[in-house]
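Worked Example 4.2. Consider the chain below.
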Amino acid sequence: MKKLILIAFLFCAFSVKAQQNLVLNGSFELNNATSCFNPMDDNIEYNNTLFYSKSFGDDYSTGIASLPCWVCSPSVLWGGQPQDGNWVLGLDGVHQIIVVPPPLDTTVHNIKQGKVSLELAIPLLDNKRYKLSFYAKSPPTDVPTLFCFTKKGNFVSVGISNSDTAFGTLLLTTPLADTSWQEYTYVFETQNEEQYITIEVGLNDTINQSILLDNFVLFETTEPLTTGINELKGINRQLLKIVDILGKESKSKKGLLFYIYSDGTVEKRLVIE
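Applying the procedure from the previous section yields the following structure tokens:
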């Protein structure tokens, strides 16, 4: 009987070990930040503050915060709590189009995009299936502007890479984040022994972006592969607009119409009455 108990204990211990998170600092708790809200002036500051993570985007586009954190009085920073521990990652993105009048008569694109990599405990194994999950959150509409992430229209792309300063292979792009925490999951297979999860804030024309992220978890799985963006857990897609066959926005509910959604999908509908 004792042998059976010991075998069962060892089996359980092995199972728990097999499910350990491969992302070394997926909740951003391993840091030496000196304040509860720490926007990074440049990549060097980020890389000296966060362990097992590297910023390779543009300066002034990353930061970490401890939630709740009273830096956005009268509101707590984005409200609510982190998904794991006390700290969360903030990514910012700006795409400004500046038209310079004559005599220069030119257009200047000012782009700043937050990009970070997360180191894995071991390289991913070839032809193995992995499940990635993480949480994302958008700013509330009433948050003050000073020292706060106030940009709208936010989303992120997540990939895997062999380099901590290159995005690598795209896994998924999320729809627009909600003002409450949403969990996203993605099951994939790898063939290149990647060593990093990479994250890149989205850019949408001239709309500034900002998003909070937390609790990146990666482990081996036998679950079915994710075949489309609509299978991402926690997504509630939103209807952006309805256009007719000429691409003009339509208020009519008759004829051939195209429904365009926030996750990038388009539905064709033919309505005859």
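The longest strand covers residues 87-100. Residues 4-17 have pLDDT under 50 and may be disordered. Compare this with Example 4.1 before moving on.
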